[in-house]
């Protein structure tokens, strides 16, 4: 994306007073401001998944650094246990930051989540090893992960809301797709950096100091992200909501965000379920499936996953633009139908074992996943009215991710262990596709239409 021009004076940090206009009159968006909003929101998602990629790829080393020596499997399980703990507090973060975003503004809350994410990741790079401070090492690691998880609870819903409320109606899908572009870029960046360091550093250097570098990079990244977010004004939709409330802080009871939006929340949970089950299956579980279940070469398996993600990055903006032309529902429905019909053939290809077969099977699943990554950032915010959008979306999104998305690797591993059926990943994705298909059937098309509770938004000149 092209760099946004720098204004002569920094924009106001306060909520701008909306210009009076006739009811229903369209809002003209500033293209330069929209570009800055997209970049600022996408960078936060990139940071979250940069940490995800780093943590996943360097987990064996972290186990040796932070947990007692002895059983390598126990060390690895302890490391992933600390990683999984972040998912437990995500709904709590959503229940705090979401309503706060509807009360004090999207921009302010997104600045706080950026600071917390960067601080949590940076702190991991500073924690002494178990050999130095004993049991306090894993305790501090867990504390840093909980800070990361809590802040992440307000990040995705806030970032997608921020982009959706800034974007003109006819380009919301394209602009929203850059949020998941940031996700893919962050994961590739984190995993790629660890892979490069592993190749360049000796085991001793990696254990003593090298592992800290990827986490310490989060500090400068956070400063850049915070700078970008602090330069932005509040979204026009929230500014208008403030004007209607005749106060700087609209009061939105938590009850209204849940019981008052129960139908939209159910749709949100269903859509996020199919989105995240397939996402975590492909990008988090499949590398382990290739190595542990199919005894595939670990390096080749990781490179295939990174190649699939790079391909998804290329396709992502074009798929987002497609949702603006044909609608979100057809694209999401195509993804659900594809996972229902092609999960078994794709997994059979992957199980065949050759590099070409694995790449084709993973590539097919990756292209189906793009149907969701390109659509959800614009489809999910459109489920809720402006007054409760951030809060309701945070609650629905994080509950679904914590219950279904983040548990996918654990549940599928347990199912394979209980049944001995190596096709369980395909069956699990098919079940998720059915749930997603039901949600798509009942959702309303939002492409090219104003967000609920907001005036039409058109692209300014």
SSE inventory with pairings:
Layout: E1 27-29, H1 31-57, H2 59-66, H3 72-104, H4 106-124, H5 130-133, H6 136-152, H7 155-166, H8 172-200, H9 203-210, H10 212-216, H11 218-230, H12 236-245, H13 254-258, H14 262-293, H15 298-326, H16 328-352, H17 355-373, H18 376-379, H19 389-405, H20 408-419, H21 424-442, E2 457-459
Parallel strand pairs: 1-2
Helix pairs in contact: 1-4, 1-7, 1-8, 1-11, 2-3, 3-4, 3-6, 3-19, 4-6, 4-7, 4-11, 7-8, 7-19, 8-15, 14-15, 14-17, 14-19, 14-21, 15-16, 15-17, 16-17, 16-21
- Approximate strand percentage: under 5%
The counted number of beta strands is: 2
Number of helical stretches of at least 4 residues: 21
DSSP helix fraction = over 70%
Adjacency order of strands in the biggest sheet = 1-2
Distance between the termini: 18 Å
Q: Which consecutive residue ranges, at least 5 long each, have pLDDT under 50?
A: 1-23
C-alpha-based Rg, rounded? 22 Å
- From the spread of the alpha carbons, the general shape counts as globular
Q: What average pLDDT do the residues reach?
A: 84
SSE arrangement, N to C: EHHHHHHHHHHHHHHHHHHHHHE
Q: Main beta sheet: strand number and arrangement? A: 2 strands, parallel
Class of secondary structure makeup: mainly alpha
């Amino acid at each position: 994306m092209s760099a946004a021009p720098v204004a002569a004076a920094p924009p106001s940090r306060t909520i701008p007073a909306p210009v009076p206009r006739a009811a229903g009159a369209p809002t003209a968006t500033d293209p330069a401001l929209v570009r800055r909003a997209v970049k600022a929101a996408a960078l936060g998602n990139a940071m979250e998944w940069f940490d995800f990629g780093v943590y996943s790829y360097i987990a064996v080393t972290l186990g040796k650094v932070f947990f007692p020596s002895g059983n390598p499997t126990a060390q690895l399980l302890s490391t992933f246990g600390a990683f999984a703990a972040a998912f437990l507090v995500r709904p709590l973060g959503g229940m705090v930051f979401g309503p706060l975003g509807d009360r004090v503004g999207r921009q302010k809350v997104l600045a706080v989540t950026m600071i917390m994410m960067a601080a949590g990741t940076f702190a991991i790079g500073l924690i002494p090893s178990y050999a130095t401070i004993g049991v306090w090492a894993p305790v501090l690691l867990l504390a840093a992960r909980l800070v990361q998880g809590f802040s992440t609870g307000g990040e995705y819903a806030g970032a997608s809301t921020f982009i959706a409320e800034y974007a003109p109606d006819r380009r919301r899908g394209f602009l929203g797709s850059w949020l998941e572009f940031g996700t893919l870029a962050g994961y590739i960046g984190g995993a790629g950096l660890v892979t490069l360091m592993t190749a360049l550093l000796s085991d001793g250097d990696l254990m003593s100091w090298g592992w800290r570098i990827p986490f310490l990079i989060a500090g400068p990244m956070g400063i850049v992200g915070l700078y970008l977010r602090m330069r932005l004004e509040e979204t026009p939709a929230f500014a208008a909501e403030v004007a209607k409330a005749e106060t700087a802080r609209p009061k939105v009871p938590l009850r209204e965000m849940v019981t008052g939006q129960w139908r939209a929340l159910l749709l949100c949970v269903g859509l996020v379920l199919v989105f995240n089950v397939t996402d975590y299956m492909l990008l988090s579980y499949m590398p382990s499936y290739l190595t542990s279940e199919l005894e595939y070469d670990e390096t080749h398996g990781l490179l295939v996953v990174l190649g699939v993600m790079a391909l998804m990055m290329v396709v992502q903006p074009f798929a987002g633009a497609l949702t603006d032309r044909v609608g979100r529902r057809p694209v999401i429905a195509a993804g659900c139908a594809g996972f229902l019909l092609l999960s078994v053939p794709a997994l059979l290809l992957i199980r065949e074992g050759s590099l070409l077969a694995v790449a084709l099977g993973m590539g097919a699943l990756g292209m189906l996943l793009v149907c969701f990554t390109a659509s959800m950032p614009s489809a999910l915010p459109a489920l809720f009215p402006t007054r409760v959008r951030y809060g309701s979306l945070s609650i629905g999104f994080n509950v679904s991710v914590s219950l279904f998305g983040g548990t996918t690797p654990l549940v599928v591993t347990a199912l394979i262990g209980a049944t001995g059926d190596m096709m369980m990943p395909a069956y699990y994705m098919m079940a998720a596709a059915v749930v997603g298909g039901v949600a798509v059937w009942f959702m309303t098309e939002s492409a090219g239409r104003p967000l609920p509770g907001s005036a039409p938004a058109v692209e300014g000149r």
